[in-house]
Every structure is written in structure tokens, then in C-alpha cells.
Please model this.
Amino acid sequence: MSTSITSPASSKVSEGTIAPPAPPAPPPAPPPAVGVAGLLGRPYRTIRLEWTSDLRLLRVRMCVRPIQCYSLAAMGELKQMLDDISANPGLVRHFVMTSDVPQVFNFGGDLALFVLLARAGDIESLELYGKRCVDLVWWMENAANLGIHTTVLAQGDTLGGGLESVLPFHKIIFERGAQAGFPEALFNLFPGMGAWDFTIRRAGFAVANEMILSGHLYTAEELHNRRLVDVIAEPGEGEATLERVVREVDPRHRGTVAALRAQRIAAPVRHESLMQIVELWADSAMGLTDRDLRLMERLARAQARKAGGADEGAVEEIKRLELETAWGSDRRSGVERRTVAGGDRRARG
Amino acid sequence: MTMFFADLVGRTDEDRRAFETHPVVLDAVAHGMTLERYRALLLELYHVVWHFNPVCAAAASRMGTPALEPQQAVRHFLYEHMHEETGHETWVLNDLEAIGVPPATARAHGPNVHTLSLNGYNYWAADRRHPCSALGMLYALEVVASVYGGPFAAAIREALLLDGDHGVSFIASHATMDAKHMADLRQVLNQVRDEAAQAAIVESVRVNFHHFTRIVEGV
Model:
């Protein structure tokens, strides 16, 4: 896109310098940024921002390296950036999200953090994490009310929470070759941050049922056939397709945004529903057995392999898990597994 | 009001992720290690584990007096924890022996500067910063064990073709055992209300993740 301004933020990961102890009380929220300079001026580490002035387009490039997921820091920075947009009504007309990590759009939740919190029996933190995710999808759901049209481009693996974060966008573009799905069912959980509501609205109840309960991964074409993806781009042509889509919308921006506001009224997603599901999700996570958590760790290990440059990653591991399930590698029943593994973490208080 | 455990997880999340995403740690979890590096890691680990209970004891000994003991719950928690961890340094020796390092060699090994820094900080923090800082050491080391221990043990088994828990018993057993420890630790951390104690725990978590990363990097 032309006439772009890039934020000064760097994606470099800090090398673990130890600062003095953090103050006991969280610092007050920084004042909202004013104008484009304010919006781009914050020192983000997990996102990079670009401004295209002729379109009033803000592009967010996610770069949570080396494992692209919704870490607490990434969500904090996204929230700050979205708050800044809200504080500058009329400034942004187009909001675009892409990934700077090759072959990965987003792996979704921070699996190591989930394992930590589930093992600690910390339902409060799991709920808090889920609600922060809902804050982000809820902002996206209401972007048209701010006069903003949203577009997302996925050029690689889009798993779990990564797919949930995509679904509230107005226009979803996938490059052929990208794969997506909700693998949570494979480790006895379900996607809890908008998957049900947004999939049902886009593709209907049957598709939501199929995708969420199976844990299968889908190709871009399969997602397009199910109406979850609006546009398919050929490999390597995602950027050009993104530009074309945005420039097609731009001349009809006001009418399109008004129509999308009406669409949300006609087929609303309720905040209350999203929050209730998060609570149910956190409660379900407390019931994960050691076996379930080990499966989650296998996925985390596969992510680490891919981050280290291996060809195979979480997608291939999910397919292996599906095969193992289909062939009955673990022949013990669910009840047996729970008994052997020591069962429900809710009982631990 | 957020409970302190949740607050601690949030305030130290980037330190945990700095450990998790360090290239050497990432590679170790994904592909395991060579025998030589795994031996070197266990030799350092032996010295970390050996000092674990003495650090807890030092901290417990500084938690008030019979007349005034605001951290009684923490003190009692440390006693129980020390009881459970007693003798675990021997597990590390057994694993070392299984991969060809005699106990005498392991005992005679001089720890590297990163291990000395980790242990030195933990004694100093228990003595001079705040006795509750020992809880920060526990949190960091149990996160390492319960979240990353399982995948790391699996990777080592695959890389070195080890049979069952032979040679990885310390890491593999702590991966599951520390799950219960984490739940217990959460409960005791949620009882820490004192702001100075909380700040010391946060600092201790950050320093322990930092030094532990350097230990893995150093081998």
C-alpha cells in the first residue's frame, strides 16, 4: 500500500535484563494517544503498526516471536492500540491485521500459560485471560460502530484462539495453503473466546458443531466452502488481494459500514453470551487431566519445533493426534483415564 | 481485587516467556540435547537442587519470632515443602549415574557462574531482601518443572534413546509431582498480603527465570 508510515516499535525480544522489583500497584493506564503520531508512537514489542494515509488505514502486523500466540503481553498491547483507536473517533477508516511470522497467522492461546494455570488450579486467572480475549473480539465486533471496516489476511496456520480472533472481522482473506481449525477438542477442551457465536453467525449451527466438536483442521478452500472465509488468495498473492479488497471497499466505505452495523443488529452476538462461555471454558479447563495437559504440551513442543525452523509444527502434530484418536492408540475409556490421572483440579480449591 | 497468584502470573509472564522462547531452551524442548550437554545440565541441576531446601530453611528461620509471626502460613508451607523435596538431589545423582557420571564425580563438580549466581541470589534474598522471596524461587522452579519438564523429558528420551524414566527420573517425576505443588503454592501465595513481600517474590521470580535460562544456555 502506498504512503505508509511505520511505527518505531521493534519486534526484538528483550534479553532478560533484570529491573528493580515492580511496584506493588499496577501503574495507571497511559493517557490515550492523540492523532496518527500518537497512535504509532507507542513502543510496542509484539505488534508493528503501519499507517496508509490516503486510505486512513491502520495495519497491525502481529509479531509475537518466536511462537506467535496471544500472550498476555501481546493482548495488553493490542488492547492499548484498540483503546487508542477508540479515543480518536473518525481517524481510522480501515483496520487491517496480518502476521509477520512466516507460515503462521496465530497459534491462539499461550499453551504454556494454560498448562501453568490449569496445573495450579487457578480458575480466576484463566477467566481473566479469557475475558481479555473477549475484550479484543468484542472491539472487533463493534468496529463498524466506530466507522471502521476491518480486514484480516491469514497466510499460515490459524489455530484455536487464532481462528476465533479472525472471525469477527468484516472481511476474511486466507491464502491457499493456510490451514485453520479448533483443535481444543483433541485435549478435552473447547474454544471459549467467541468460536461458537461467530462461527454460528458466519456459517450456521451445523458447521460450528462440526468444526468445534471434531477438532479437525480445514484448508482455506474448505473454510471458503463453509462461508467462514470470504476471499481466497493464491499463495504469495495475499498482499495484492488485501490491497484490492480494501480499495474495493473504500469508495463505498460509508454505506458498507452502515450496512455492517445493520448486519450486527440483525444477527447480534451478545457480550453476555461470550462472557458466560468464557466462564464455562475456564471451569472446563479445571477438569483437564494430566493426559489432556500432556497432549497440550505435545502441541506446545510442536510449536517450538516449528519456531526452531523445522518443517513440521502444530498442524502436523494435530493431524497425528487425530490419527491416534481414530486408531484408538489410547484405548482406556474417559472414566479410566480420569481415575488414573488423578482427575479434576476443581477439587483442589 | 485480583488474588496475588494471578497478579504474580501476569507481572512475571514476560520473564517466563523469555525463558520459554530462548533459542537454547526452545531447541532443548523441541529436540532434546546431546549426552554431553545433558550431563552438564544435570551436574548444574544437582547443585540447584542441593541448595533448594537450605534456602527454604534460611527463609523459614527469618519469618518472625514466637511473639510475632505474620508469615506463619508461609513458614509452615516451607516446612512441608522441604519435607517433600528431601533427598531429591539423590534422584539427580541417580540420573547422572544412569548416563555415565559416577556420584563422586557429580559431587566434586564445581558449579558454573550461573548456578552460583542463582544460588547466591536465593540465599541473599532470603536473608536480606525478604524471607518470602523463597516463594519466588519455588514458583519459578516449579513452573520450569511442571510446564516444561514433561516435554523436555520426552525430548531427552527421544534424543538419547533412553528407556522409560531411566536417566530422566528427576525431571519426569517433577513434571507431574510439581502440578500438585503448584496448586499448593497458589494457595499460600494468595495469603501473602504484605506489599514488600509481594514485591520481593516478584523480583525473585524474575531473577530465578533469568539465571535458570543462563544455566541452560551455559551448558
Observations:
- Chain B touches chain A through 51 residues (CB under 8 Å).
- The CA atoms of residues 153 and 189 of chain B lie 28 Å apart.
- Chain B has eleven helices and no strands.
- Chain B has one domain: 4-218.
